[in-house]
Request: fold
Amino acid sequence: MKILFYIFLMSFLTSCFLFQKQKIADNCIPIYDLMQDQEKSWNEGSIDDFMNKYWESDSLIFIGKSGINYGWKTTILNYKKSYKNKTEMGILKFKNIICNPINDSTHIVTGKWSLLRNDSLESIGGYYTLIWMKKNNFWKIIYDHTS
Reply:
């Protein structure tokens, strides 16, 4: 009888764990969709459309190889200075590794990015941590640490 109880308990706990894991994955789908939109915008050569997913605020934080930058305007200007044309932009690909919902309106996404470019330019890549937050019912990146 005791063994049946333990089997039932283990089955129940496993089901709870799998349900919770699926719930987390489902909560991240809208953000993953937005990141696919960003890939498409970038790959079409539109930094402006790519930046639509960022919080348009002086409080936006972007950390990259040149250090900490504050503000949406600074971030878009840096992108445009670093990637002057579609050839330099290459083909962007995100690979999300983990999405951690903090609550219903804040998620942290960590993953890997790559820019595949033609033979004349070196392909590059690295990792990112993004904090996505709902602002006026829209998901926006409020913090981007990209290496």
